[in-house]
Structure to design on (720 residues):
C-alpha cells in the first residue's frame, strides 16, 4: 500500500469525485464446498492428518460441551453460559494455525481456541463453578477463562478492551525479539467500540505483529449486523487503517486455517498487524440470558444450519480417508460422560477462603484492606449461617 | 546534587530507569523527538531509540490499552497522558482493565509494571480543559496507586519508586510547578516510599494536609498564621491511594484540628474521604470540625481562576475559623 499521509503523494482530480462503498470488492476466501470437496481453484492448505483430526475433534468436543453447559445452566447448576454453536470453525481453525508461544486474547466465544490449546474439561468446570481450583480464584462469571501456562489471557467482560491491549502485547513480543505473535478475537459488535479503532490504528502505526480476528456472526445480542454498521463489514475498516486484511468464510475450517497461517507468517515476517474477518453465524443464543426467537426467524437459522462447519469438515475428512465414524462416536460419548463427571466433581470443590477477597488487588495486601478483611472475618464468625461458603474456613 | 526543576527531575528519573531496564518504554502524544509538550521526555528518543521512546496516535484509550497489553506481556511501560483533563477516554481502560487485571486473573497476569504520568492542576490560565485535578475519580478504584509529588526532589524519588513498584501507578505531576519549582536533586538513584505521607513542617495547633502544588499554598498560609502565633503542622499526603491514614491521624491527635486543601471541587473530592476517616479515628481528639478548602463545585473557570483557587488567603481564613471554633 502506498503511503498516502503526505499531500504531495495524492493524485489530483478535477471533478467532484465520490468514492462509494462497494467500489472495492473484498472477496471471501472459501476452500471447502458444503459437500466437503475443494473448490476448483482452491488449494488445500498444508495440513497433516493429526492436525486435521485435532481440529475436528476439538470442534465436536466444544459442541458437546456447549450443549451440556447450556443444560447445566437451565438446571440452575451454573449461573451463566455462552455457547459458540455454529462458530466452532472460526476459533478452532485459527487456533490450529498458531504456535503455543503465541498469545491468545479472546472475547468470550472462543472456547474452541482454548480447548485446542489443551484446556481440560476439569479446568473448564473449575472456572464455571468459580471454585478454588480455578487459577482465577473464582472471581469472574462463568466463561471468563484465563490460563497463563497456555498463553491464554484472562477474559474481561467489557467489549473490545483487548484490542489495543493485543497491539501492546504484540509490540512487547517484537521488542523482546520473540518468535511469537498475538491473536485478538472479537465480534462485529465489539468493532463499534472506540477501542477497536484505537487498537487497529496503534497496531498499524507501531507495526505490531498481531492478528485481529473478527467473528462477524451477524448479531450483537439482538442487534443484527445491518443495524451495527453501514460499510462493507469489518474488513473494509482494515484497509482504512493501513492494515493488511483477509475476509474468510468462518464456517470453512480449512479456509480459516489457511488464512490464519498466512496472517501469522506475514505478521512475523513483516512485523505488522493483519485483520481477518470471518463471516459466520451465531446459531446459539447470545447467552443463556437471551432468547433469539424474539428477533430472528427459524428459517434464517435453518439456512445457516446447512452451513454447519462440523459437517463440512467431517465430509472433507471422509474424502481424505481420515474420518473414523467409530472413533467419533466414542469421542462424543466420552465427552458427555467426562463433562458430567467433571461437573459433579467441580460442584463439590469449595470456593477460595475469605482471605482471597482482598488478595491480588495489589501485589501485597495493604493495611486498609487487611483491616477490612479482618473486620469481615469477625462479622462472618458472628453470622456463620448467612455466609455458608466461607464460615468456619480459613487459609 | 544538581539544581533541577520538576521537569528535569522527571526526565532524570526516566533516563535512570531506561538505562537500567531495557524493558522500559516511554510513549504518548508528542513524547518522541519533540520531547513532549512540556519537554519531560526530551532527548529520550535520541538516547534510547525510537523503539523505546515513541509518539503514539492521538488516542488516550489506545495509549492506555496498548500500555496495559505491554505491561501484561512483561515490559515496563511508562505512558504519558498529555493533560489529566484528557484522561477520560482512557477511563475504561484504567478502571476496568489496568486496575482489575491482577484480581480478575487470580494473579496470573497483571499491569503491575505500568506507570501513567500525567500533568494535572490549575493556576496556569488553562481554563476548563487544562486545569483539572481528577485524582478522586481514580481513588475510588481499587487496584491503582496514585502518587503526587510536591517538588523536584520528591518527583524523582517518587517516580522511580512508582515505576519499580509492582502495581499500576497513576503519577500526577503538578504542572504549575514544572518550571517554577527548583530544588537540589541528587544525580544518583534514590527512591521515596509510596503510601507514606511526609511531615513538611511540625506544629502544634492545627494540621494542614494537602498534596502537589498545594503544599506551597499551605506553607504560605502557615506563615501568615504564624504571625498570629498559630503553629501549623504541614503534611504532604504524597500518595492518594493507598493513603497514609496513620500519619495523618497521629498528627491530628497531636494538634486536635485538621484542614484539608485540594484544587479539585469540594463535593466528592478526596478531602471528603480523609475527613470521614479522621472523624472515625480521632473523634475524641478533634477540637473543631475538619475544614475543607477546595475548588468550587463548578467546572474549572478561566477568567475567575484566581477566585476559584483554594489559595493561601482562603486557607488562612479557614485556619482562623477552625482555631476559633
Amino acid at each position: 500500500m502506498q503511503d498516502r499521509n503526505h499531500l504531495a503523494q495524492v493524485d489530483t482530480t478535477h471533478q467532484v469525485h465520490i468514492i462509494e462503498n462497494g467500489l472495492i470488492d473484498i472477496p471471501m476466501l472459501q476452500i471447502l464446498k458444503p459437500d466437503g470437496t475443494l473448490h476448483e481453484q482452491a488449494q488445500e492448505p498444508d495440513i497433516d492428518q493429526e492436525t486435521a483430526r485435532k481440529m475436528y475433534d476439538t470442534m465436536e468436543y466444544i459442541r458437546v460441551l456447549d450443549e451440556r453447559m447450556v443444560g447445566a445452566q437451565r438446571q440452575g447448576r451454573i449461573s451463566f453460559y455462552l455457547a459458540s454453536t455454529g462458530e466452532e470453525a472460526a476459533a478452532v481453525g485459527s487456533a490450529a494455525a498458531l504456535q503455543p508461544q503465541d498469545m491468545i486474547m479472546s472475547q468470550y466465544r472462543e472456547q474452541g481456541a482454548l480447548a485446542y490449546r489443551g484446556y481440560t474439561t476439569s479446568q473448564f468446570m473449575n472456572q464455571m463453578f468459580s471454585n478454588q481450583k480455578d487459577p482465577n480464584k473464582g472471581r469472574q462469571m462463568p466463561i471468563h477463562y484465563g490460563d497463563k501456562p497456555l498463553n491464554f489471557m484472562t477474559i474481561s467482560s467489557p467489549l473490545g478492551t483487548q484490542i489495543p491491549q493485543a497491539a501492546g502485547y504484540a509490540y512487547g513480543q517484537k521488542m523482546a525479539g520473540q518468535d511469537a505473535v498475538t491473536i485478538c478475537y472479537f465480534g462485529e459488535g465489539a468493532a463499534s467500540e472506540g477501542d477497536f479503532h484505537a487498537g487497529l490504528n496503534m497496531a498499524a502505526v507501531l507495526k505490531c505483529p498481531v492478528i485481529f480476528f473478527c467473528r462477524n456472526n451477524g448479531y450483537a445480542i439482538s442487534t443484527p449486523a445491518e443495524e451495527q454498521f453501514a460499510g462493507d463489514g469489518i474488513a473494509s475498516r482494515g484497509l482504512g487503517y493501513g492494515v493488511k486484511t483477509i475476509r474468510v468464510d468462518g464456517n470453512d475450517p480449512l479456509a480459516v486455517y489457511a488464512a490464519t497461517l498466512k496472517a501469522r507468517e506475514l505478521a512475523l515476517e513483516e512485523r505488522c498487524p493483519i485483520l481477518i474477518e470471518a463471516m459466520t453465524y451465531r446459531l446459539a443464543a447470545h447467552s443463556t440470558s437471551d432468547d433469539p426467537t424474539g428477533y430472528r426467524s427459524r428459517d434464517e437459522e435453518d439456512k445457516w444450519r446447512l452451513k454447519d462447519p462440523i459437517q463440512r469438515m467431517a465430509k472433507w475428512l471422509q474424502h481424505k480417508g481420515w474420518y473414523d465414524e467409530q472413533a467419533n462416536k466414542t469421542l462424543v460419548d466420552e465427552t458427555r460422560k467426562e463433562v458430567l463427571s467433571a461437573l459433579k466433581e467441580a460442584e463439590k470443590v469449595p470456593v477460595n477462603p475469605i482471605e482471597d477477597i482482598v488478595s491480588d488487588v495489589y501485589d501485597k495486601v495493604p493495611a486498609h484492606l487487611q483491616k477490612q478483611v479482618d473486620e469481615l472475618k469477625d462479622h462472618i464468625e458472628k453470622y456463620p449461617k448467612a455466609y455458608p461458603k466461607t464460615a468456619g474456613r480459613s487459609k | 546534587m544538581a539544581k533541577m526543576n520538576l521537569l528535569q527531575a522527571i526526565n532524570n528519573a526516566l533516563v535512570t530507569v531506561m538505562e537500567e531496564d531495557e524493558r522500559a518504554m516511554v510513549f504518548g502524544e508528542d513524547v518522541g523527538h519533540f520531547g513532549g509538550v512540556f519537554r519531560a521526555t526530551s532527548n529520550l528518543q535520541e538516547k534510547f531509540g525510537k523503539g523505546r521512546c515513541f509518539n503514539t496516535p492521538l488516542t488516550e484509550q489506545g495509549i492506555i490499552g496498548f500500555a496495559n497489553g505491554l505491561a501484561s506481556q512483561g515490559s515496563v511501560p511508562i505512558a504519558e497522558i498529555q493533560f489529566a483533563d484528557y484522561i477520560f477516554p482512557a477511563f475504561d481502560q484504567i478502571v476496568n482493565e489496568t486496575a482489575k487485571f491482577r484480581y480478575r486473573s487470580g494473579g496470573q497476569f497483571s499491569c503491575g509494571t505500568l506507570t501513567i504520568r500525567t500533568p494535572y492542576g490549575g493556576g496556569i490560565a488553562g481554563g476548563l480543559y487544562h486545569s483539572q485535578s481528577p485524582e478522586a475519580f481514580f481513588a475510588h478504584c481499587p487496584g491503582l496507586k496514585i502518587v503526587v509529588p510536591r517538588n523536584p526532589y520528591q518527583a524523582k524519588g517518587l517516580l522511580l519508586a512508582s515505576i519499580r513498584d509492582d502495581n499500576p501507578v497513576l503519577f500526577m505531576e503538578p504542572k504549575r510547578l514544572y518550571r517554577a519549582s527548583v530544588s537540589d536533586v541528587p544525580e544518583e538513584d534514590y527512591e521515596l516510599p509510596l503510601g507514606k505521607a511526609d511531615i513538611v513542617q511540625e506544629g502544634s495547633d492545627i494540621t494542614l494536609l494537602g498534596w502537589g502544588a498545594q503544599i506551597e499554598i499551605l506553607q504560605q498560609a502557615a506563615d501568615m498564621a504564624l504571625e498570629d502565633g498559630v503553629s501549623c503542622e504541614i503534611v504532604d499526603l504524597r500518595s492518594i491511594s493507598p493513603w497514609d491514614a496513620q500519619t495523618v491521624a497521629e498528627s491530628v491527635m497531636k494538634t486536635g484540628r485538621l484542614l484539608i486543601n485540594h484544587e479539585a471541587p469540594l463535593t466528592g473530592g478526596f478531602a471528603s474521604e480523609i475527613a470521614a476517616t479522621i472523624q472515625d479515628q480521632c473523634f475524641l481528639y478533634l477540637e473543631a470540625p475538619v475544614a475543607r478548602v477546595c475548588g468550587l463545585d463548578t467546572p474549572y473557570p478561566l477568567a475567575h481562576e484566581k477566585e476559584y483557587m483554594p489559595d493561601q488567603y482562603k486557607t488562612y481564613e479557614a485556619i482562623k475559623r477552625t482555631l476559633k471554633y
Summary: Residues 198-324 of chain B form a domain with the Rossmann fold fold (CATH 3.40.50.920).
